[in-house]
């Protein structure tokens, strides 16, 4: 659906941020871009959505080179949304409803359809009860959900997310995870960057490791996190579940929560068996 071929980008000051980057969005439903600060992740996302025109190489959408004509970019961005790291810069209306409806109104959509989409997006992100609250009273995590609702309301085919869980408390983080799960269930493709390796390991089925503006290694997420040499080169840590697999032989779990649930179920089975045995 979306991919790049030999993408290069050089900033006006001469800094080369991307060096021949080729990624393929068809590799997975949830794709990770990971790497140390300055590796090129945010620049690549800006290029994917057409905010930056590459110095070299090509962005393809549905097998067609991305056009940078204003009208065609406008149409393209109906199919792809971006949730940036700094939610304060993405949420700028004083009222939540108006903020979520902003892009839809710009598209000239009928008021009734706008209301349907806004209500659905607010429900999907768990902010319906906040609809009448002024934006400046919201927490950082709530603003993140408002930003996500604004993107979901457009009903894009692809959503790019830059550090979606950064700075969130556990409850807010769980809320963002639920939003991502809901989007994936609807068939929306997610491409995200994060320094939270456990989050990446849990959600992403394919991962690109960026280093000094290029792709250092790529592959299925479970395989990438076993490549300790590449992770060390990119100043990244292994996911907790990868370490548990290597140290204790625990396999088949993508998160601590999934492992804990399996242990609880196993205990219940043991207790049931013991109760049944004692009854004979």
TrEMBL record:
Keywords: ATP-binding, Cell membrane, Hydrolase, Membrane, Nucleotide-binding, Translocase, Transport. GO terms for molecular function: ATP binding; ATP hydrolysis activity; ATPase-coupled transmembrane transporter activity. Residues 2-237 form the ABC transporter domain. One of its GO terms (biological process) is cobalt ion transport. GO terms for cellular component: ATP-binding cassette (ABC) transporter complex. It is found in: Cell membrane. Its main location: membrane. It is a peripheral membrane protein. CDD domains: ABC_cobalt_CbiO_domain1. Gene3D superfamilies: P-loop containing nucleotide triphosphate hydrolases. The keyword Ribonucleoprotein does not apply. Pfam families: ABC_tran. Belongs to the ABC transporter superfamily. NCBIfam families: cbiO. Probably part of an ABC transporter complex. Responsible for energy coupling to the transport system. Part of an ABC transporter complex. Responsible for energy coupling to the transport system. This is ABC transporter ATP-binding protein. It comes from Acetobacterium wieringae. The lineage of its organism: Bacteria, Bacillati, Bacillota, Clostridia, Eubacteriales.
